[in-house]
Amino acid sequence: MSFREESDDGRADLRKPFLHTGSWYRMGSRQSSMMGSSQAIRDSSISVVACVLIVALGPIQFGFTAGYSSPTQSAIIKDLNLSVSEFSLFGSLCNVGAMVGAICSGQIAEYIGRKGSLMIAAIPNIIGWLTISFAKDVSFLYMGRLLEGFGVGIISYTVPVYIAEIAPQNMRGSLGSVNQLSVTIGIMLAYLLGLFVNWRLLAVLGILPCLALIPGLFFIPESPRWLAKMGMTDDFEASLQVLRGFDTDITLEVNEIKRSVASSTSRRSTIRFAEFKQKRYWLPLMIGIVLLMLQQLSGTNGVLFYSSEIFRSAGISSSNIATFAVGAIQVVATGVATWLVDKVGRRILLIISSAGMALSLLLVAIAFFVKGFVAKDSSIFNILGILSVVGVVLMIISFSLGMGPIPWLIMSEILPVKIKSLAGSLATLCNWLSSWIITLTAPLLLAWSSGGTFIIYTAVSALTVVFVSIWVPETKGKTLEEIQFSFR
User: In this structure, are residues 175 and 90 in contact, taking their beta carbons and an 8 Å threshold?
Assistant: First the structure.
């Protein structure tokens, strides 16, 4: 009998990889004479990096969706004769669709695998972008945005989980941070291309990441930990061998994963509500949910979605160019975080990041408050405008160094195998619910009081410092199995 019970009340046979490519990996791992891509993997363990780069197309799609509303706001409002509130609803509907996607994401990824989940996520994204591109009225805009959001909601859960499950422990932080790095690249591309093309063509270009992702999924292995949980022993070991290199001894890691799966999986695969009273379940779930909510409630998406308007209100004439510059800075800062996270650690970067955000947002709030008391044609007014832009840039840098990439990474690391699908969906849902609240209210709050809006965001960032200091554990240098055992 395998290390996992082969039958969960007769339902185990329903859980199969949607994209089954295990056979060629077994061939590649056993035949030393194989050439081509298998030989390259044997010579250098680059397979895991290649897999991450392919699935990173999903977060690029995520970022492109997030960044789309900023450079297109004025043009869409003019062309379709929308009100500010109608466009605000358009911007926020992505989050509504993502909430639905988040609810489904855990179960989809659980039943058909991580790769199949990403395949399903790509299809509504493509349809959504086409719907927006050919929109003649606001209803088509809303429909397209909801479809995009649904796909993005699945992507936002599946990609960090897949990366965490395939990455070796010494690279998991850096590779996991590629998820957020790809999101920032997508945002920057939306800002950059928005300078040169109209909003309809920009929507067509939004299809490209998913069009590239779909064929790429056929060339990467399924998550070995998911295969192990499904009892597919041969495919599990073959997948892990490819990811670690064909000349690598994977015996120790195989045994560790088997023990973890055996201890967390039984004939009754569903978890009872009462079991959430156990610390090993409620504590990682609470940390994951609160951290992902604080990531959004700090107001970053409100700034990113409406950055052009923020810069315009600060007196910057070329607001779209300034927005693109912020997007480029965000990519660089997230790249630095990707390099630092396995060296410095998750917890210290989160504290530095949230503290930096609080100070930066306070600077912006003060600048906007003081601007209300000085003449618009004075030099002080111009200086305050520059200070507000500097504060926004510093906030984005601070966010990118920790609060951007690390909450998703920690969520994918700390959730126990037994509750990962349910808990991961719930944490992702809370993240998108918080994002929806921020994107829906940001333009209204900014119209009410720019300074007051940034004071609210400052308070949330300060609260994050306290929460991380008390509750968030350090996961650097630990295997997923060690992390989950530490909560027992």
Answer: no
